[in-house]
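Why does residue order matter? Because the sequence determines the fold. Keep that principle in mind as you read this record.
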Amino acid sequence: MKRLTLIVATLLLLCSACHRNDYMPKPSTYLRFDFPAKAYQTYDTAALPFTFEGAKEANITVKKNTPTDKWVDILYPNYRGVVFLSYKTLRGPEDLRGQIDTSYELLKMHFDHSSGVDERQFVNPQKKVYASTYLLKGSNVASTYQFWVTDSTHHFLRGSLFLDCTPNNDSLAPVLDYLQQDLKHLLETLTWR
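Structure:
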């Protein structure tokens, strides 16, 4: 019994010695990103029926190259980001309608996780570039930025931005904003062949 009392007393003494009244929790922290200055280069290859300016830091690869379908990945290894581009040749107004409907269906897959969508139009009649962009809001959206662009007769290009990580777009907002600027620049510099 004396031994048990001694053990309990020792434990109480150790616990009271470890207790500090001046404890303060650590403040919340946020990820810090140091972005390089924006620098672009023209991406012009015979494999694609369009050209655009892409970020110099991105790796651009053609994944599929058939006469009517092209798949292009724009990889951002420093941010674990990828932009998937898919191109389709249009054969008429029905093809255009079908591609727009498909784009909306793919976009709607993210609505359950979104708190809102900011849709914008981009038009450059001199280059025959007509685009719709979609900024999806919410902290759990897998693809926060999507777009489609067409000349309305021959070309249709769809793009979507993804990050290879668990969605938490509040803390990833600086990276998403940085990459979305590149996509806006892509649309502004897009030229059909």
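The chain has a mean pLDDT of 89.
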